[in-house]
């Protein structure tokens, strides 16, 4: 099919590989926009696929990615990034000459490298993407059509990427209500290591530290909104975030070094009773947060 503006987009067959929060919400949003005729969902577990069909997230389910992508107009790979090489290798021989492929991964340099290696001649129709939206929930039952509304979706097309493929993927995300931003893949990974990957490591680490204590049940029993808000994202998929952290290890470890240095400054100020240093850090953080929230879109 030819690419079209978001308001006239009509995808004949969409295949979503990984019918979770991102893939399922992508399907629901396009269905709500009347922009897709048929959605085939592919996944590893029959239970999740059955739920996706029952909830109307997809029209039909398959456990065979290669069979599912035949005659597809658009394929979204919504699996954890660590699964993408296997998925790409499986589907490449079955992809049509006009099928456009995209992804929803939180890292881009590794995914682009996988696509170059495994998609072969289809690489020119691969459009790397990252929707900046999500919740701590996962699975088909977590999907909802409004997830991407007024949210940014990053596209990182390569020099070989066909303009028609970019137009189709852009139109699909716009039909979901998203705003499109284009970024260099390396810069993308640097940015999201700081504003997404590091916060998840912090939340998981804090919750892990508390859980390992012998008095964990007592501590958590007395906790309130402060801890709940801080570790909310530790409810996210461990598999997905394991893969993201390993894929973006270079940028992430540099930021972890910076963060541990900042923690050491706080520790030293507390240990030494340095109220001025602690106040300076806290006020700088509060002011930076206030400025950020004033500029941040609703």
Describe the fold and architecture.
There is one protein chain. This protein has 298 residues and is of the alpha/beta class. It folds into two domains: 8-184, 3-Layer(aba) Sandwich (Rossmann fold); 187-295, 6-phosphogluconate dehydrogenase C-terminal fold (Orthogonal Bundle). It contains twelve helices and nine strands. It has helices at 21-32, 46-54, 65-69, 84-91, 109-118, 163-175, 185-212, 216-221, 225-230, 238-247, 249-271, 275-295; strands at 11-17, 36-42, 60-62, 74-77, 100-103, 126-127, 129-131, 152-155, 179-182. A six-stranded parallel β-sheet has the order 3-2-1-4-5-6. Strands 7-8-9 form a three-stranded mixed β-sheet, covered by helices on one side. It is elongated, with a radius of gyration of 21 Å. The protein starts with 10 loop residues before the first strand and ends with a helix.
């Amino acid at each position: 099919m030819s690419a079209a503006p978001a308001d006239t987009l009509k995808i004949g067959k969409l295949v979503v590989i990984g019918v979770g929060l991102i893939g399922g919400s992508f399907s629901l949003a396009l269905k709500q926009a009347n922009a897709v005729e048929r959605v085939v969902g592919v996944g590893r577990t029959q239970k999740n696929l059955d739920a996706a069909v029952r909830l109307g997230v997809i029209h039909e389910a398959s456990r065979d990615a290669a069979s599912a992508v035949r005659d597809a107009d658009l394929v979204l790979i919504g699996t954890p990034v660590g699964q993408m090489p296997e998925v790409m290798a499986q589907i490449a021989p079955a992809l049509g000459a006009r099928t456009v492929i995209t992804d929803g991964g939180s890292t881009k340099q590794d995914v682009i490298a996988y696509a170059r290696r495994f998609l072969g001649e289809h690489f020119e129709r691969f459009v790397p993407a990252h929707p900046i939206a999500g919740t701590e929930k996962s699975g088909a039952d977590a999907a909802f059509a409004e997830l991407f509304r007024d949210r940014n979706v990053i596209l990182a097309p390569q020099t070989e990427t066909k303009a028609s493929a970019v137009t189709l993927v852009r139109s699909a995300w716009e039909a979901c209500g998203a705003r499109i931003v284009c970024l260099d893949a390396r810069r993308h990974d640097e940015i999201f290591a700081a504003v997404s990957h590091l916060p998840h490591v912090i939340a998981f680490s804090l919750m892990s530290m508390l859980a390992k204590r012998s008095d964990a049940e007592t501590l958590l029993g007395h906790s309130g909104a402060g801890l709940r808000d801080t570790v909310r994202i530790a409810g996210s998929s461990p598999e997905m975030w394991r893969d993201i952290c390993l894929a973006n290890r270079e940028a992430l470890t540099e930021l972890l070094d910076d963060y541990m240095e900042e923690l050491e400054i706080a520790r030293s100020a507390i240990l030494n009773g340095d109220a001025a240093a602690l106040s300076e850090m806290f006020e700088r953080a509060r002011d930076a947060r206030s400025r950020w929230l004033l500029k941040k879109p609703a």
